[in-house]
Amino acid sequence: MYVVLLTLHSLIRWVVVLAALVALVRAIGGLAGRQAWSALDRRLGVIFTSAMDTQLLIGLLLYFFFSPITTAALRDMGGAMAQAGIRYFALEHWLLMLVALVAAHIGWARAKKASGDSAKFRQIAIFFGLAIVIVLLAIPWPFSATARPWLRLSI
């Protein structure tokens, strides 16, 4: 189960990144070109926030039940905080991703309530932009101190 969840978590990461970037580019283009809010813009917002929600659920399963790193860290949180690699997964990664998820949902809620197309695009540009910056900072990239592969298909 661990390998399946880890693989899904890795694959859905790309859905999150791509949906956020496409929605952000469309929002900036919509603002600059004074375009109309479309069904595609709505769909992208739903895809992005749903993918973020799915990542949260998979991440929680990994964190509390299946990941040997975090389950060990939860048994000795003091020891985990002393080791940068373990601290990253035990605290930093999920906390940053939770902030990104909240930003995405605030932006989506505000965009849905906004009265004009320009206001909708502005909310998406601000909050999805903030969310994707945080997500990109919190992903354990292959070149980071907590390196993980670009696409994880096994342990």
Tags for this model:
155 residues; mainly alpha; 6 helices; 81% helix; elongated
Shape: elongated
Radius of gyration: 17 Å
The fraction of residues in strands falls at: under 5%
Low-confidence stretches: none
Tally of helical runs: 6
Question: Which percent range fits the helix content?
Answer: over 70%
Order of helices and strands: HHHHHH
Mean pLDDT over all positions: 95
Structural class: mainly alpha
Largest sheet: number of strands, sense, barrel closure: none
Please report the distance between the alpha carbons of the first and last residues: 11 Å
E-strand count: 0
Detailed description of the structure:
The termini are close together. This protein has helices at residues 2-33, 39-66, 68-75, 77-81, 84-113, 117-138. With 155 residues, it is mainly alpha-helical. The model has no long low-confidence stretch (mean pLDDT 95). It contains 6 helices and no strands. It is elongated and about 50 Å long. Helix 1 packs antiparallel against helix 2 (39-66). Helices cover 81% and strands 0% of the residues.
Short overview:
This protein is mostly helical.
Give the secondary structure arrangement, pairings included:
Blueprint: H1 2-33, H2 39-66, H3 68-75, H4 77-81, H5 84-113, H6 117-138
Helix pairs in contact: 1-2, 1-6, 2-3, 2-5, 3-5, 5-6
